[in-house]
Structures are given as structure tokens and as C-alpha cells.
Design brief:
single chain, 391 residues, mainly beta, 6-stranded mixed sheet, elongated
Length: 391
């Protein structure tokens, strides 16, 4: 005697803040051999007392590095009955930083053998919600939790993990949502004005506006001996999965660059009131890296893809995440110039020196990383969309 609970995410498992999450939840009473022999007997009906669903975000921190403010909700959860109360975060460590109101799917559901009932759960992720993030000190994880209970039995939980992306700065870009709609009647001064909430379409417009602009920036990189290279970055804001493209021009340099490297790096920094240590620095993680030998090179380019798995730029009351390009240049002033042929038919060979006196120069260039459309992530990173438990 059992009931199967199936949950499916028809539109993928990746969502933007402000987007409506949709989950199809089915309850099915499968046939057994004995039930097939007496399937018209109403005594073999399966009964569920109720079922409910909600979304919650769990924040897990390294207690040795992070001071997390205590919350009463954690104490209430610890003292609540673990058998008869619907606790979505039961069995999980950390702190609940976001929890939507539970929505009841049904009460007193009766299922005959072979019968199935499907319910659609919808919930909007708040714009103020933190993004999904797995950092060195802090982790944010989202789940849809479906709780159901038989009569006089313990509650069973089905947990469906989802990923949430934050479009950083969306509350400040309200004008994008309002600019498309022109007033069709004079404003009434006696009616209280209602501020419109940004929509998903406006969020995607903001995302497109911030990342589609190509405004090349040029940087003359020098050290104490002179100019090393001129670097051109086509833009400073990128989406997940996009390529960072830059061009190096060594032709006008007065200092020879032997080799260089460019690394995509994230910087995780705790808020001052959340630092567990007095002199706790910034935690960095390196991703894709480009390395090239550049002696006697005039032009070259760098292409660094941004992984779909990383978290875009964001800030919460606990932690902030920023992105930068980390450059390292190895320069020298002792190498001789490349000899030039006197005629097109002349062949000249040049032997590099066995040893060089070099200097290493470091430079960081901040960039912004935004999310991309959830469907693009779903296509690039297929995830599990179907989940099931039996009760």
C-alpha cells in the first residue's frame, strides 16, 4: 500500500528573481496484484490528509569565518514537533533566509488503485531574494518542498532543488518598465499613484541593455621603465556563457613583454559586521586563464569564456561577489631587438638569450557579470527536472 508523489518542472530548474516558478505535482496510487483482483472494492482506496508546497532558501556559512545573526525562526523550528509540523527545512543545516507562504494543494484526497491527481504549484520569487551561490564562506541553496501526510502518520517531504539568478540593480531600473507605456488619460490628482512592479520582460530588457552595448575601452599599461602594451576591452559587462574578448597591442611599447597571462577571478567579500576575524581578507577563486609568450609580438587577442555554472555579481547583507580580470606581465629591458632583413630574399635567424633579467607586473581590471536567459542555461547545463518519492 503506497502512493507515488511525482514533481516535474516543465519550464526548467533555473529562474530569475521576480519570475514565477511552476511545478506540476502528481499523486498516484499504483496497482498491486491483489488490488487488480478486487479493483472495484472501495475499501482499498488510499487517503492523504493534505499536501502543501513552498519555496525556501537555506544559507549555510562557515562558522569560523562568518558571524551570522541569530534568528528566532531557527529556535522555533528546533522546538517544533518533527512528526506533525510541516517544516520544509527539516534535516538541513544552516539558516532560512527566505521562505514563501505555504500553499495547500488539497485536503482529504482519496485515490483508487491506478488513479492519479495532478496539481499545479506556482509561486513568485521575490526581487529581494539572494541568488543561488556556492562560495568559500557562504552558500545559498533553493528548494521547492512538497509536504504530504497520511492520516495518523508522519509527514513526508519531497525536495526539488532549483537555481535562482539575480539581475543586479533591477529595482533601480524601474524606468525600463514604465517607459513603454504612455498615459492614455490625464493623471487624476485625487487618486493615489501606485508604483509599478518590474516584470520579467523588463528584467530581460535591462539585462540586454547592460550587456549588449559595445563601448571599447583602451588602457595604456606602463611600469617604471615605460609603456608595456595598449589593451582594448570591447565592453565591461558580460552575461554568463559569454566570451570576454580583448586585444593587446605591443607595437608602440617601449618595454619588451616576454609573456603575459589573463585570469578570470571572482572576489568574495564578507560584510564588515559579518566577519568572524578582525583582519579577514577577500576570498578569490580563479576560473579560465589565458597564457601567451609575447616577445617580439605586435598584436594578439585574448578570449576568456565565462562558465554557465558561476554566480553573477551580487550583494546581500552577508556577502558580496565581484568579478575582475587579473593580468600578469613579465617584462625585460635586456633583450636585444629583432634584426630586420635588408632585402625580401634575405633569411635571418635570431637566437634568444639563455637568461633574462625580468620583472613581473600585476594589474586588475574590474568587470561586471550578469545572468543570462534561464533557457540558455537549461540548454547548456541539463538538470534533473523530475523527482519522486513513495509514501
Amino acid at each position: 500500500m503506497m502512493i507515488e508523489v511525482h514533481a516535474r518542472l516543465p519550464h526548467g530548474s533555473v529562474f530569475l528573481t521576480g519570475e514565477v516558478v511552476e511545478c506540476h505535482i502528481s499523486f498516484r496510487s499504483p496497482f498491486t496484484y491483489s488490488q487488480k483482483q478486487s479493483q472495484y472494492n472501495s475499501d482499498i482506496e488510499e487517503v492523504l490528509a493534505w499536501a502543501s508546497a513552498q519555496i525556501h532558501c537555506q544559507c549555510t556559512v562557515d562558522d569560523t569565518l562568518v558571524k551570522f545573526p541569530s534568528t528566532a525562526s531557527q529556535e522555533e523550528l528546533a522546538t517544533a514537533s518533527q512528526d506533525t509540523s510541516f517544516i520544509p527545512c527539516r534535516g538541513e543545516s544552516g539558516h532560512v533566509v527566505l521562505s514563501t507562504k505555504p500553499k495547500i494543494l488539497f485536503c482529504d484526497l482519496k485515490l483508487s488503485p491506478g488513479e492519479s491527481k495532478t496539481y499545479i504549484y506556482k509561486e513568485t520569487i521575490p526581487y529581494t531574494a539572494p541568488p543561488s551561490y556556492r562560495g568559500q564562506c557562504v552558500k545559498y541553496a533553493y528548494k521547492i518542498t512538497v509536504g504530504t501526510q497520511r492520516v495518523n502518520a508522519v509527514i513526508k517531504l519531497l525536495k526539488i532543488p532549483i537555481r535562482v539568478l539575480l539581475v543586479y540593480g533591477i529595482p533601480d531600473a524601474q524606468f525600463c518598465a514604465d517607459s513603454e507605456e504612455l498615459p492614455i488619460a490625464p493623471a487624476n490628482p485625487f487618486l493615489q499613484s501606485q508604483q509599478k512592479q518590474p516584470t520579467i520582460s523588463s528584467a530581460l530588457q535591462i539585462l540586454e541593455a547592460n550587456t549588449a552595448r559595445r563601448n571599447p575601452s583602451y588602457y595604456n599599461i606602463t611600469n617604471q621603465n615605460g609603456k608595456v602594451v595598449r589593451f582594448c576591452l570591447l565592453k565591461s559587462s558580460y552575461r554568463l556563457g559569454e566570451d570576454i574578448i580583448g586585444v593587446f597591442d605591443f607595437s608602440q611599447g617601449t618595454v619588451k613583454c616576454v609573456q603575459f597571462s589573463v585570469t578570470l577571478i571572482s572576489e568574495e567579500e564578507l560584510q564588515e559586521n559579518c566577519k568572524g576575524r578582525a583582519k579577514q581578507g577577500i576570498t578569490t577563486v580563479a576560473y579560465n586563464k589565458h597564457h601567451e609568450f609575447s616577445l617580439h609580438l605586435n598584436l594578439t587577442q585574448v578570449i576568456l569564456p565565462i562558465p554557465l555554472t558561476v554566480t553573477p555579481t551580487f550583494t546581500t547583507n552577508i556577502v558580496s561577489l565581484k568579478w575582475k580580470l587579473h593580468f600578469e606581465f613579465v617584462t625585460t629591458t635586456t633583450v636585444s631587438a629583432m634584426p630586420e632583413p635588408t632585402s625580401p630574399s634575405e633569411n635571418i635567424s635570431w637566437q634568444g638569450p639563455a637568461n633574462l633579467d625580468v620583472q613581473t607586473m600585476i594589474w586588475d581590471l574590474p568587470i561586471k557579470v550578469f545572468p543570462t536567459h534561464p533557457l540558455q542555461i537549461a540548454h547548456g547545463l541539463p538538470s534533473k527536472l523530475d523527482h519522486m518519492i513513495t509514501i
